[in-house]
Amino acid sequence: MAGTAEHDAMRRALANALRGPRGVNPQVGAVLLSPDGEIIAEGWHRGAGTPHAEVDALSQLAPGAARGATAIVTLEPCNHTGRTGPCSEALIAAGVTRVVYAIADPGDHSSGGGTRLRAAGVDVEAGVLAEEATALLDSWLTVQRLGRPHVTVKWAQSLDGRAAASDGTSQWITGPTARSDVHRRRAQADAIVAGTGTVLADDPALTARDDAGSLLPHQPVPVVIGTRPVPDGAALRRHPHAFLQYPGDPASGGLAAALEDLRRRGVQRVFVEGGPTVAASFLRERLADELLVYVAPVLLGGERLALHDIGVTTIGEAQRLAVASVTPLGDDLLFVAHPTPDLAGAGAPRAERGRVGTPSSEGDE
């Protein structure tokens, strides 16, 4: 059973993982402990084609210095040869006697490192700080398990569930603190999605900006769902990235097809905030992994609901959610929730393992 020193080392490994770039490969961190529990080396995956986190940590030591050590890793050591060799074999060769990892590698070709290590006589423990590691790798894990990007659906609403006043005005329901939080989250996404109705009605820029209105360094690719053309003078056409447009026809699985194309383009994290119709479409097709609902203490009344029909006709069909957090943002509240396990990913078939178009372990491409 992992002790305090190993839990502390896993927290440090998670921090190390964040030092690596976020992309099609997972962010992974590692820490090596001496037999008496002291940190002797650290590592992280620094990008495609570079040594994996465990090997990066081992490279900090002289030959033989890792003998008897414990390796703490945020993701199960890989068991395959891609552009780099299998980390399980590297740990065995280095004389590591115990390996602790947070979550199992879901890849078909890269998984099995824990089994290989045990077969070589290495003591292996899995699941230490698994929740924290899962949160770190949520988008990568979604791609591996479901074959599509991780989808966050966001909307802002009044306390009575409206997205706009009766005349259609909606700026601003929430306050500046909540809006700043939205832009920060936009900048963490690879793509931002809006429907043509929102594009035509509100002319959004779909950019991520700081409090002064300047563009943040990372900008998500804008995506439009719907068949109506984007006007020549639309703010969207001045976005740093050219926008992508998909018809999104639910009758032909349009959203799933759009997500599949985005995955092929290297998109792992999608941020949906393009109006009540598009938000409802993702929920109706069970394609949402995370919900961000910003609630302002105002009452608007009227028919401008924040969410349109999601296919629920009776209480037994209600989409149940697990609330992860409720955070005050100025006068507003942010609810972060996730579909319960029986609903997660129900709208899209799970990809066959080994056929997902994204590498299944760090450094594969």
Quaternary state of the chains: single chain
CATH architecture of the largest domain: 3-Layer(aba) Sandwich
From the helix content, strand content and strand pairing, which structural class follows?
alpha/beta
In order across it, which strands form the biggest sheet?
9-8-7-10-6-11-13-12
Termini separation: 35 Å
Considering DSSP H and I runs of 4 or more, what fraction of the residues is helical? 10-25%
Question: Which residues form runs of ≥5 with pLDDT under 50?
Answer: 343-365
Give the number of helices. Answer: 10
The ordered string of helix (H) and strand (E) elements is: HEEHEHEHEHHEHEHEEHEHEEE
Q: What is the CATH superfamily classification of the largest domain?
A: Dihydrofolate Reductase, subunit A
Number of domains: 2
Q: Tell me the major beta sheet.
A: 8 strands, mixed
Mean pLDDT: 87
CATH class of the largest domain: Alpha Beta
* Global morphology: elongated
Rg = 23 Å
What's the total count of β strands?
13
Query: Strand percentage, roughly?
Result: 15-25%
CATH topology of the largest domain: Dihydrofolate Reductase, subunit A
How would you briefly describe this protein structure?
With 365 residues, the protein is α/β, with parallel strands linked by helices. It has helices at 4-17, 53-58, 87-94, 113-119, 130-136, 138-146, 176-188, 196-202, 254-264, 276-284; strands at 29-33, 39-44, 70-75, 98-103, 123-126, 150-158, 191-195, 221-225, 244-246, 269-272, 290-296, 321-329, 332-339.
Q: Can you walk through the features of this model?
A:
It is a single chain. The chain is an alpha/beta fold and 365 residues long. The chain has 2 domains: 133 residues, Cytidine Deaminase, domain 2, CATH 3.40.140; 192 residues, Dihydrofolate Reductase, subunit A (3-Layer(aba) Sandwich), CATH 3.40.430. Helix content is 25%, strand content 21%. It contains 10 helices and 13 strands. The strands form 2 sheets. The protein has an 8-stranded mixed sheet with strand order 9-8-7-10-6-11-13-12, with helices on both faces. Strand 3, helix 3 and strand 4 form a beta-alpha-beta unit. The radius of gyration is 23 Å and the shape is elongated. The relative contact order is 0.15.
